[in-house]
Amino acid sequence: MELSELWFILVAVLFIGFFFLEGFDFGVGMATRTLARNDIERRMLVNTIGPFWDANEVWLLTAGGAIFAAFPHWYATMFSGYYIPLVFVLLALIGRGVAFEFRGKEKAQQWKNSWDWVIFIGSVLPPFLFGVLFTSILRGMPIDANMNIYAGFTDYVNVYSVIGGITVTLLCYLHGLMFVTLKTVGELRERASKQGQKLIYAVLASLVLFVGLSYFETNLFTVRAGVTIPLIGLIVLAYSSVIILLAKKRDALSFTMSGLGIMMTVGLLFVALFPRVMISSITSANDLTVYSAASGDYSLKVMTIVAVTLLPFVIGYQIWSYYVFRKRVNGKDMIY
Amino acid sequence: MSELILARLQFGTTTIFHFLFVPMSIGLVFLVALMETLYVVKKQEVYLKMAKFWGHLFLINFAVGVVTGIIQEFQFGMNWSEYSRFVGDVFGAPLAIEALLAFFMESTFIGLWIFGWKKLSPKVHLACIWLVAIGTMLSALWILAANSFMQEPVGFVIQNGRAEMNDFFALLTNPQLLVEYPHVIFGALATGAFFIAGVSAFKIRKNLQVDIFKKSFNIALIIGLISGLGISISGHTQAQHLMESQPMKMAASEGLWEDSEDPAAWSAFAIIDEETQRNTFELNFPYALSFLAYSKFGGNVRGMNTLQAEYEATYGEGNYIPPVNATFWSFRIMVGAGGVMILLSAVGLFLTYRKKLETSKFYLHTMVWLIAFPFVANTAGWVMTEIGRQPWTVFGLMTTSAAVSPNVSTQALLFSLIAFTLVYAILAIVLVFLFLREIRKGVVYSTAEDPQVSIDPFNKGAYR
Fold this sequence. Notes:
A: 12 helices; B: 2 domains; two-stranded antiparallel ribbon; 6% strand; disordered C terminus; transmembrane helix (chain B); Cyt-d_ubiquinol_oxidase_su_1 (chain B); iron (chain B)
């Protein structure tokens, strides 16, 4: 295997990790509006992800850095080509990040409400926009011979990409509900579980719709059909199993399954892309591939050594932090 | 052309705004870690109170630093795609390593620190804040390794129409990095130190919780004085290095058009006319520039016109003179602010030694205003570094005008510039509001339980 191929896998792993971890953060952020009924519940929700969300977001930054280092052309083409969507992603992430920090700093209800709305919007927008972004990448963007995207509105926003955005948002929302079910007690836990049970059907419907449209819009079924089709089957299976697991109150397992569902969905995208990293809708000669977009061998070698050395530590201490805060967030403790 | 201006404006705004918070975070977390260490070693409650109080302020500041940092990482690709294509092979690696090594460390252990007061043993908890402190300094190391490459490209070869890395170790031992890193770190420590000293001075003057704030003041001033001296030594070394690596920046920061006399005089003040390329007024100190450049009272310094001719011979026709006034004045503002900081921290330690601190109302009042000085110096330093490098983005390799994204429209740039600037303004207002609120509240003496911290960390007053 060439190093550039290895780095494609590493970038995929970083995005998979990002959506698995930050996916439930986004979901919990959405749930502050749709699940929580009062301030105490909202606080409980924010508490469930309190120690984790910042580190989870770093998976995105690392993925961005890895693309920059290993595939400079991919980084340059994608980030300049998706300018406006990324501006909104940034605004959302900025608002959300400070809102977690600021919301509890002042007692006034108006203050808390404002920041809670920022948390909600900041949690809905990124998964939706990332869904749109990745879906339209898979569909192909007008990339010219100089690797630059000159795109119009409908290249970004079309039925397929919007369905993709909604699907990713729903996946994150469900994942968030599963996390809340796992990390809270009492009535809030019950409600999260119940809402999840209903939401599952919407998730499955949007997945089916998305996959169906992909048949017409992309070559998801023709490149590597031997992998993509079984993978789609497994995704549907994972989400279907959540219905049963929730009914049996197997919180950890249902969270695991919704996590696997998200991870496999992101994985599916990367499987379908490979060896391309950006698809040109003008001509396949303009596609960026892992080979044409990659850094030199020396650079990749250095990065491989660094990543292989550091990643085990990173994963190790992140797991430790989840272990330290393994207890469910208890509503009683929060009343001071 | 207007795209270029907007992209530069955005880079300037974002970087300056981001770098108000970064040095403050690096400095504050170091001091908070120091205070918590004192608590763990001496087992005195007062140090715990101190660590928690300054920790609150650190966290508010840290949050803004983190979120504005995300823009930093994205904007290279968004606004400067040609730059990213050209240098990504070399420049991307330190950025990726920064995320992998430093960001993960900071973010994970800050979570453990905020929420772990009751769940971790005091020693493990202390280790967490030190890991955050180390993380912030590692982060600075890698981003400065990347920046140093722009000032002084090393460890690369031009291949396939772009710069490709061929010596990773050279990137890490870049002579520019070796002088820039200590300068930035000392500057950051001073920023945190003078903030703590200033806020403490305010409290001491108002006679509020004097015991705690006098202790804070002393710790901060010691760190402040040490870093002040560190800044000036590393700054002087950097100026000398600049003579070799970027003489044009040095000449511009002196407003020196023609080669200087030997020994060279230093102008503390000059009225520079960039149009006609001459200075209509200069206030000169003999020998001083020779000392600045070579650490001895002799030797001449090349002027901008000489260097312009040299660069034209090397790089072809073009204007290689950076904006002179901006470079000249930012240098003076930086040095001036640094000098005042060193002087006043020495005065403060002297007053403490003579036990006259509490009665020196004027001094305490001055120290409150001094909080602004490190921020001014940090900003001015970066303005000099980055504007003084113009017209280059990567010195000698790529000009700024060649670096900008060709496919991003003026409207898109204008939209994002306005949106981000607006958000920065809101963040700044909220941050100042919260700072004042926390400071006014002072150190909270609650029961040993301190429920807001351990049980409801998201709630008022407590962390997050």
